[in-house]
Write a structure and sequence with these properties.
Layout: H1 15-22, H2 31-54, H3 62-80, H4 94-113, H5 117-121, H6 126-146, H7 149-164, H8 179-188, H9 196-217, H10 220-232, H11 238-254, H12 257-275, H13 279-292, H14 303-310, H15 315-343, H16 357-364, H17 369-380, H18 384-407, H19 409-429, H20 434-456, H21 468-501, H22 504-516, H23 520-534, H24 540-550, H25 552-557, H26 562-576, H27 584-593, H28 597-607, H29 614-620, H30 636-658, H31 667-679, H32 685-713
Helix pairs in contact: 1-12, 2-3, 2-9, 2-18, 2-21, 3-4, 3-9, 3-21, 4-6, 6-7, 6-8, 6-21, 7-21, 9-18, 9-21, 10-11, 10-16, 11-12, 11-13, 11-15, 12-13, 12-27, 13-15, 13-27, 13-28, 15-30, 17-18, 18-19, 18-20, 19-20, 21-24, 22-23, 23-26, 24-26, 26-29, 27-28, 30-31, 30-32, 31-32
Length: about 725
């Protein structure tokens, strides 16, 4: 590649196939079978889009909505995912068709009989029992195929605990085992499968997966990467820093570590290798930055909407509290990358190879507008699904008309006028929200403005031409990406149901508190380990739901504020996604990087560990969380001081992990770096002063050693 050649971005056409294969599906169907999957996926997406914008259909309650959501999910799982990988299937086998039909039949039975006397009174008929057992079997088999064995094993342990708990000693002993009651509670009440996790998946998560899929189909991934490369590409280790930033922006929206890693990694990993990063390191950087995006506002990979259900806080309060820790965690990854580049003297890309920021913004900067609209409606107080719906409306308007009107201005304006007039008329005819017409009008206006701007500066239109094919591809990708969340949330509902039915909800906090001896730091350390173990191989949504029910209450009981406790378990739940040996994002990118998956996973965990101690900081000193209950309690100088000292602690810990700062650390310097990071956790002015002094000492020692080494390298003068 010549220096004057601009970097071009070409999305991998097989991204969807790779994502499905990594999740356990290597079934590649064609013809009418592929069309069947496409139609079902589109219908599923359209159904959720309708409910987000217009509410539930007449006669459809919340439970019915969850039944429809789960039925679509289960049927698609058995059509897309084979019984095991490696079979080389090119068609859907007969028994998977049969299982999909059984799933649809079970869904219809649940829908038709949810108000029957036997269900309402809890006196199940024989058919109710058979359907309930079948549903449990379907959920577990779908979970095994999509998520993998870890969650199935955890679920089996919980079920075994329900039936064998009377053999255990206190405090784990319980005497509530009853088979009929178990089936009824898990399948016909809100205590099991149709509990809060599945409700969140159906109401909140799917619509944001759809938003992210459509946004990616419009070429937003290219925009994020181009802008990040322009900002960071020319600096030391520039492509890696650009990967961190672009993956973070996309990861906040997508909520899927695997999909995000493959989408951005297809382009960023070869660039990182080109400038000198080792294959496993390049893959590890992409893993860390893709996974941690789920901590970044405004969408947080749908975690913010899960937290709405488990905490007393609003969306605006949650993203405000998450903002500073999320930014600090990404600064940690960036600093890790910078140290890695310094260790191996890895340069950036020549400026001539980078796409102009002005060109990028004029080409497709309009794709940022839907995200701004989303935040506006959420902060204004609209419901979460409604805000996502309005964002999708303006996104589709922008993506459609920006190309159409540039190619054929007259026809484009005519169609735009018809669409705008129709959406406005529907406000009066069918009582559509006036915001729909406003979003369409705004989208048309911005499209026209962008076209004029592109012509004024003689800049080509965005390379992705959005049409019906791209729209359907976005709908299908959304449905496919949601399957992991659907089945994981259904299984998580069973786990939470067992916890509640056995009384373990009240016992667990007491057990943890007693085990920690009322030492908060010890309790936090136990919680960290529990999060990493429970989160192995699980999607973040399922991990958070389990931890929010089992672990967060213990921290709250020990005096940790609710917000801090939930952000604590969320952070380590996300980190668990990067923990070897079960590390799907690492397996995703290892094929792109041509690296070994386990070593790539280790590097991913390493690069994601720069802010490993940060949750300890905000759990014991909540100043940086900007909690609503702390409003007016701390001045901005105090908040700034706490952010600064948290950042210094992160820098010290990154230096400890990398074993390098200005030069390679000696043993005592590494111990000094670790001690500095640990001192900054406490948050008092005395420990902060001590930490600053230790850090100054470390920097001074490194500076003197660096100066001495540089002096040795100078050639002798005559």
């Amino acid at each position: 590649m010549s220096k004057k050649e601009e970097i071009s971005y070409q999305a991998d056409p097989d991204i969807e196939e790779k994502v499905n294969e990594l999740a356990g599906s290597d079934r590649k169907v064609r013809g009418w079978m592929a069309m069947l999957i496409l139609v079902m996926a589109i219908v599923m997406s359209l159904y959720h889009l309708y409910t987000a914008g217009f509410g539930l259909m007449p006669g459809v309650g919340t439970r019915t909505h969850m039944i429809i959501h789960l039925t679509f999910g289960l049927a698609l799982v058995f059509l897309i995912f084979p019984i095991k990988r490696g079979l080389g299937q090119t068609k859907i086998v007969w028994y998977d068709f049969l299982i999909a039909l059984i799933a649809i039949s079970v869904g219809y039975y649940l829908y038709a009989n949810q108000t029957s006397n036997s269900i309402l009174t809890g006196r199940m008929t024989q058919m109710d029992m058979i359907v309930g057992i079948t549903l449990l079997a379907l959920v577990f088999e779908a979970t095994r195929r999509v998520v993998g064995k870890p969650l199935v094993i955890i679920g089996s342990i919980f079920i075994a605990y329900f039936f064998l708990g009377h053999y255990l000693n206190p405090p784990f002993r319980h005497t509530r085992a009853n088979f009929d009651n178990f089936i009824y509670e898990m399948t016909y009440t809100s205590s099991g499968i149709f509990g809060t996790p599945l409700s969140v998946s159906a109401v909140y998560v799917f619509i944001f997966i759809l938003f992210g899929a459509i946004l990616e189909a419009t070429g937003a991934g290219k925009m994020f990467i181009d802008l990040a490369l322009r900002a960071f590409g020319k600096y030391k280790g520039g492509p890696a820093k650009a990967a961190v930033v672009s993956s973070g922006m996309l990861g906040s929206i997508s909520g899927s570590s695997v999909a995000n890693a493959v989408t951005t990694g297809t382009f960023t990993i070869p660039l990182m290798k080109k400038v000198g990063f080792k294959p496993q390191v390049a893959g590890g950087i992409e893993v860390a930055s893709s996974s941690s995006g789920q901590l970044l506002p405004p969408i947080m990979g749908a975690a913010a909407f899960l937290m709405i259900e488990y905490t007393p806080y609003s969306y605006a309060e949650i993203i405000r509290s998450a903002a500073i820790p999320a930014i600090l965690s990404y600064i940690a990854i960036l600093f890790m990358v910078h140290i890695e580049a310094s260790k191996h003297n890895i340069k950036g890309l020549p400026k001539e190879m980078l796409v102009s920021a002005r060109k990028t913004l004029i080409q497709h900067g309009y794709l940022i507008l839907p995200v701004i609209i989303l935040v506006y409606f959420l902060v204004r107080g609209n419901t979460v699904p409604n805000a996502a719906f309005f964002s999708i409306v303006i996104l589709l308007t922008l993506a459609t008309f920006t190309h159409r009107m540039r190619e054929k201005m007259g026809v484009g304006l005519l169609i735009a006028a018809v669409v705008g007039g129709f959406s406005y008329a529907m406000h009066f005819v069918l009582d559509w929200n006036i915001e729909i017409a406003v979003m369409v009008a705004l989208g048309i206006f911005v499209s026209l403005f962008v076209i004029l701007l592109q012509k004024q500066f003689k800049i080509d239109a965005a390379p992705v031409r959005f049409g019906v094919r791209e729209l359907f591809a976005g709908f299908e990708m959304a449905a496919r990406n949601s399957l992991t969340v659907v089945v994981a949330c259904a299984t998580a509902g069973i786990l939470i149901g067992v916890i509640n039915l056995t009384g373990l909800t009240a016992k667990l906090p007491v057990i943890i508190v007693n085990f920690a001896g009322e030492n908060l730091y010890l309790a936090l350390a136990f919680t960290l380990v529990a999060c990493l173990i429970l989160g192995l191989g699980l999607p973040t949504t399922a991990t958070y739901v389990i931890l929010a029910a089992m672990v967060a209450p213990a921290l709250v009981q020990m005096g940790v504020p609710i917000m801090a406790a939930h952000l604590f378990v969320l952070y380590y739940g996300i980190l668990a996604d990067d923990t070897p040996p079960i590390n799907l994002p690492a397996y995703a990118v290892s094929g792109i990087a041509n690296s070994e998956p386990i070593s790539t996973g280790i590097q991913g965990f390493k690069f994601d560990s720069g802010a490993l101690l940060l949750p300890f900081v905000f759990a014991t000193n909540t100043v940086i969380l900007l909690l609503p209950e702390n409003a007016g309690l701390y001045s901005w100088p105090v908040i700034a001081q706490n952010i600064f000292t948290a950042l210094l602690g992160i820098i010290a810990f990154v230096v400890f992990i990398q074993n390098f700062f200005l030069v390679k650390l000696r043993f005592y310097e590494r111990i000094l770096a670790l001690a500095t990071a640990l001192v900054f956790i406490h948050g008092s002015w005395m420990t902060d002063v001590a930490g600053i002094l230790l850090l100054i000492l470390l920097v001074g020692i490194q500076y003197m050693r660096k100066k001495k080494d540089d002096g040795k390298e100078q050639p002798a003068t005559t």
